[in-house]
Design brief:
7-stranded parallel beta sheet, two-stranded parallel sheet, 12 helices, binds nicotinamide-adenine-dinucleotide, binds 2'deoxy-thymidine-5'-diphospho-alpha-D-glucose
Length: 339
């Protein structure tokens, strides 16, 4: 089996590459990544010399380069993780979000139609459903929840999902879509809540909490997301959407305080800053469908996952210190100075 993993030098894609190489010794994994600010070859250090692994530094929106890769590799399955993924950046400027997340998806699916594949899998997000109110704990996102986006990022992901559905209906392209809740774990880029808070706490820098910190996210350890996608591409029904989440809801403040507690740091490091524009209040996934149809269940509790994650950031300081001391420094200043 030959599987193309786009965005494999990023957080979830990188974890998925490791997961698949370790699990399927006879599969060929072809990583396609443009190496934007979020892509990091160091994430792929341990697999880069594996004979079952190959890498293309390619933009998924570059039709010519994508077609050449398809001709050379004749892949069976495409798993599309490649995306601009940070909500705050999409609020600053959404152009690249539309190019990569929408046009890139179109190019990949056109290549799938032209060269033929067994499955195109779109890695989507629970953000396409918008948000839920804090005072309705009985509500969850199901696959039937209408798309109702808040940020340019989520609008671009929802647009891509609609396009994937259209390619299924119009061209019979064998597609599946997964919509997952917030992931955390190793190799998470330190602009996102959990790794940012770990890095800042370790450096005794202020921890910027948006608004009052009451927003709720449904956290899933990244390996559990990988196992869900593995099941969907092998056993999921073509044309279907699967929600992925582990009933691990926490307010941002709870998450930040847990991190400070685990690191033995003072809560005085917390700094409440101006809220994110259009900030979604609560995400909560109902994962009944993937559980009932494919037997998927998450295996790592938040308590265990957050400890593993903190341990990983302590053991792999070079990985994230390189990032925060590089080009990302300017972006951090832009988002957080005078906030
Ligand atoms: P990330 O930002 O860490 O990684 C994105 C990767 O895609 C990077 O390696 C980057 O170089 C690459 N990339 C960006 N533009 C590209 C392009 N034009 N061509 C080729 N490669 C390109 O993102 P992530 O957090 O790992 O998210 C991966 C996917 O999962 C995204 O599609 C995201 O929408 C989705 N998702 C993320 C989460 C989460 O909590 N992080 C949850 C649900 C869904
Ligand atoms: O739900 C899935 C989505 O989760 C993915 O589709 C996105 O790609 C991913 O980035 C993530 O989106 P969020 O906006 O939920 O993640 P982020 O880590 O940016 O923020 C998590 C929460 O923490 C959110 O309520 C905003 C808040 N926050 C974030 C940062 C970076 C802060 O309070 N302070 C911060 O500095």
């Amino acid at each position: 089996m030959k599987i193309v993993v786009t965005g494999g030098a990023g957080f979830i894609g990188g974890n998925f590459v490791h997961y698949m190489i370790n699990k399927y010794k006879d599969y060929k994994i072809i990583c396609v990544d443009a190496l934007t600010y979020a892509g990091n070859m160091e994430t792929l250090d341990s697999v880069k010399d594996n004979p079952n692994f190959s890498f293309y530094k390619t933009d998924i929106a570059d039709r010519k380069a994508v077609y050449e890769m398809f001709e050379k590799e004749t892949p069976d399955i495409i798993v599309n993780f490649a995306a601009e993924s940070h909500v705050d950046r999409s609020i600053e400027n959404s152009e690249i979000f539309l190019k990569t997340n929408v046009m890139g998806t179109q190019v990949l699916m056109d290549a799938c139609r032209k060269y033929g594949i067994k499955r195109y899998h779109q890695v989507s997000t629970d953000e396409v459903y918008g948000d839920l109110p804090l005072d309705r704990q009985d509500l969850f996102f199901t696959e039937k929840t209408p798309l109702h986006t808040s940020s340019p990022y989520s609008a671009s992901k929802a647009s891509a999902d609609l396009l994937v559905g259209a390619y299924y209906r119009t061209y019979n392209l064998p597609v599946t879509i997964s919509r997952c809740s917030n992931n955390y774990g190793p190799y998470h880029f330190p602009e996102k809540l959990i790794p940012l808070m770990i890095a800042n706490a370790l450096n005794d820098k202020k921890l910027p909490v948006y608004g009052k910190g009451k927003n709720v996210r449904d956290w899933l350890y990244v390996e559990d997301h990988c196992s869900a996608i593995d099941l969907i591409i092998h056993k999921g029904k073509v044309g279907e959407v699967y929600n992925v989440g582990g009933h691990n809801e926490r307010t941002n403040l709870e998450v930040v305080k847990t991190i400070l507690h685990e690191l033995g740091k003072s809560e005085e490091l917390i700094k409440y800053v101006t809220d994110r524009k259009g900030h979604d209040m609560r995400y909560a996934i109902d994962p009944a469908k993937i559980h009932n149809e494919l037997g998927w269940l998450p295996t790592i509790t938040f308590d265990k996952g957050i400890k593993n994650t903190i341990r990983w950031y302590l053991d792999n300081k070079a990985w994230w210190e390189n990032i925060i001391s590089g080009e990302y420094k300017n972006c951090y200043e832009k988002i957080y100075t005078n906030r």
